[in-house]
Each structure stands twice: as structure tokens, then as C-alpha cells.
Specification:
Length: about 400
């Protein structure tokens, strides 16, 4: 590093040591924050980990509609209020404003999550002689077509995103991502061989996400998450028609549903005659979410076997939270899911999220209390032993110290 911070050889990432003391980090995320999504949890946990290690952390995001839990004293929230009506205009405005923030803050490390803020990050980092860390959870050339149909139908725009993604992967001094599957995808996209990289999956807090005092009084199936096509919610609803004919286990759906998606989902529920079996509960947070997981018998993540999930991969935070609560989880057999769940040991994997296969898996697990208990307990132990947020925070701090700050 050219200025401002030095790594001392006697620093230790143990006990109460502050190995990043004196380090100033700017963490950039082009999204409203705080938020109730998995990304909001991840941002909170990673910035908290850096702050607890002694770093002074500035979190530069879009403004949120409502505030969530406060951050540690060392994390300073700097939301940018932008009025641009569409995504691209808002992204470009965020890029320009973020660059001005960086010039004013003079951070020793710039940590960014997306391409708009990434342009500002690598420009500042090159000018100031400091490292830029690209935390890749999903690339816009893959993600945006699921959210904006017009983007998927505009190849020249997708091509521009791919070029920008490639430039940021090349110019970043370090890359962090969420799964080995995602890392392989990024390496195929061309991360330089000498760029340090860290796989940092999501996690759960087993002190909060606990099994609960008593087992559910009746069988229930729980899905937590959004309703984009790649999540497999339509297939899950069609499976519900099959399993509820054999086991009286209603389906609770927890998570935000965009107005444009709600009507088709409600129409499908009516067509399948599931009005009394499916409950759309909306987003839940904190203890309300934990209680809902504790009240479930089996939890589900019916991810589609599409390009996004097969090639780019993901690290669904819901899997970690289900497992932390000691719940038997039924999920699609994808390489990124196998990094989290071992079939028959810590969960139940389905070859494909086809309604018939999903229904068969759910009937089998709903009617097997012994498997629910044994697999659920093993799943919770897995989280406690190697997949808590404390594990992730230690890994991040170690990566900063050993790989980022030595560049």
C-alpha cells in the first residue's frame, strides 16, 4: 500500500486483538440499506467484522426507506439520496457520487459489491494507490434479465455490462465471492491468476436462529425468499397441490412479492385450488422470522436448474438459517447447494425442482419424524461448527491482513 496504513508482523487475529486498527475502509453497495434481504444481512455482518477488528468502516449505499438495527459505533453509514427514476441513470449517478465520497474519505481500502460503484472504486484506487476489493455475489449480465425483461432483450446493453464486469475483475486487487461454483464461473470469465481470491459463503447466527422450545404442533412447510423465476416458487406451488393431497401440511411463503408478481402467484394458487393451503405472509424480520422457521416442520429451497444457479451459483442465506434452527431442508441438487448441504446427512436434495419430485420429497420428509430430528440436529451442528457469521468475519479479517493489505 502506498500510504496511510501498515501491517505489523506482530498483529494477531485472535482474542481481543485489533489487527486492522488504524485501517480506513470504504464499503460500497448500490442498494438501499439497511434492508431485510439476505444482502442486507451479509453487508451488516461483514462490515461489523471489519469494524470489530479495529477498522474504521464507511458504508456508502443508497438511502433506505426505513432504518433497521443500528450498526456498531465504528461503522459510519453514508447513504446517498438519488432521485433518478430508472436503474441505469441511478447507477451512473451513484457511481459519480460515490467517487466524490471516496475522494473526501481517503480510505486505505475500497471494498465494492457491484459494477456501478466498482467503476468509482477502481478509479479512486488507481489514483490513490490503494487496493480495491471486488465482492461478487452476482453479475448484472446474469441477474438483470430476471428483474428487467427489457434488459434481457437488449444484447448490446448486456454486452456492455459484460465488458465492464471483465474490466473490474481484471483491475481489482482482490476478489471475494460466495461459493466455489461462483468462483469457477468468475475464473472462467478471466480473473488474473495472481489476484488473491476468497470464497466467503453466507452463514447464520445459531444464538439467534435456534430450534425453539417445542416442536411444531402440526406439520408445516416453509419457504423464505423472493419470488423471481430462478427461485422455483411456481414449481413449489404446483408441488403443494400434490403433497397436500397426502399430508395436511400447509405452505407458508415468507418474503417480499413485487406487485407485478403477486397477481400471477395468486392466480396460480386459485387455479390449483390451494387458497386454504398456501399462506403469503410477506417479509418478516428478526424474531418474527425466527419464530416462523421454528414453527415449520420442513423448509424448502426449490431453486431452478437454470443458467444462473448452475453456472454463476449462489449461497442462499435461507439454507443456513433453516439449518441453524435444526430444520430438515429440502433443496435442489445444485453444485452450489452441495457446498452447504450433504444429502441424507444435513438435508434432502432433489434432482430437479419438478413438482412431482418436490412433492415426493416433501411427503417423505414430512412423514419421517426420526429423519426430521436427526438430520435437523446434524444440520445445526454443521452451522455451529463451521458456518456462523463469526467464522466468516474471522476469514474476512484474515484475508484482508494476509492478501489485501500486502498488495
Amino acid at each position: 500500500m502506498k500510504r496511510g496504513f501498515e501491517v505489523r508482523e506482530d498483529d494477531k487475529v485472535t482474542g481481543d486483538a485489533k489487527p486492522l486498527s488504524g485501517l480506513r475502509v470504504a464499503y460500497l453497495a448500490f442498494e438501499g440499506f439497511p434492508n431485510t434481504k439476505g444482502s442486507g444481512t451479509r453487508i451488516t455482518q461483514l462490515t461489523t467484522g471489519l469494524a470489530r477488528a479495529g477498522a474504521e468502516v464507511f458504508l456508502i449505499t443508497l438511502g433506505a426507506k426505513q432504518l433497521a438495527a443500528p450498526h456498531p459505533a465504528q461503522v459510519t453509514l453514508r447513504p446517498l439520496k438519488l432521485m433518478e427514476p430508472n436503474l441505469l441513470a441511478r447507477g451512473l449517478a451513484f457511481r459519480d457520487r460515490a467517487l466524490r465520497e471516496l475522494v473526501a474519505l481517503r480510505p486505505h481500502v475500497v471494498h465494492f459489491r457491484g459494477v456501478f460503484e466498482g467503476e468509482a472504486a477502481v478509479r479512486y484506487a488507481a489514483r490513490a494507490g490503494v487496493p480495491a476489493v471486488f465482492e461478487v455475489n452476482g453479475l448484472p449480465s446474469v441477474e438483470l434479465p430476471y428483474h428487467y425483461q427489457a434488459v434481457g432483450e437488449h444484447p448490446p446493453l448486456l454486452g456492455k455490462f459484460r465488458l465492464l464486469e471483465q474490466r473490474l475483475l481484471t483491475e481489482a486487487q482482490a476478489v471475494i465471492t460466495q461459493s466455489q461454483t461462483t468462483l469457477r464461473f468468475l475464473e472462467d470469465r478471466g480473473i488474473p491468476e495472481d489476484t488473491p481470491r476468497l470464497v466467503l459463503p453466507n452463514a447464520a447466527d445459531p444464538e439467534r436462529f435456534t430450534p425453539g422450545a417445542a416442536p411444531p404442533s402440526e406439520p408445516r412447510v416453509l419457504y423464505v425468499g423472493a419470488t423471481q423465476a430462478w427461485q422455483g416458487v411456481a414449481e413449489l406451488l404446483m408441488a403443494a397441490r400434490r403433497w397436500t393431497a397426502e399430508v395436511p401440511a400447509p405452505l407458508d411463503v415468507v418474503g417480499p412479492i413485487h406487485p407485478s408478481a403477486r397477481r400471477p402467484i395468486e392466480r396460480l394458487i386459485r387455479r390449483l385450488k390451494l387458497e386454504s393451503h398456501v399462506h403469503l405472509l410477506g417479509p418478516l424480520t428478526g424474531q418474527a422470522l425466527i419464530s416462523r422457521v421454528q414453527q415449520s416442520t420442513v423448509c424448502v429451497a426449490p431453486l431452478r436448474r437454470d443458467r444462473r444457479n448452475l453456472r454463476q451459483g449462489c449461497s442462499p442465506i435461507k439454507l443456513f438459517e433453516y439449518m441453524s434452527c435444526g430444520r430438515l431442508t429440502v433443496a435442489t441438487d445444485l453444485s452450489c447447494v452441495r457446498e452447504i448441504i450433504t444429502h441424507g446427512e444435513t438435508g434432502h436434495l432433489v434432482a430437479a425442482p419438478r413438482p412431482k419430485l418436490l412433492a415426493e420429497a416433501l411427503v417423505a420428509t414430512l412423514t419421517n419424524p426420526q429423519a426430521q430430528q436427526q438430520i435437523g440436529a446434524a444440520a445445526r451442528r454443521t452451522i455451529q461448527e463451521k458456518a456462523t457469521w463469526a467464522h466468516r468475519q474471522r476469514a474476512l479479517v484474515h484475508f484482508y491482513r494476509e492478501s489485501v493489505l500486502t498488495r
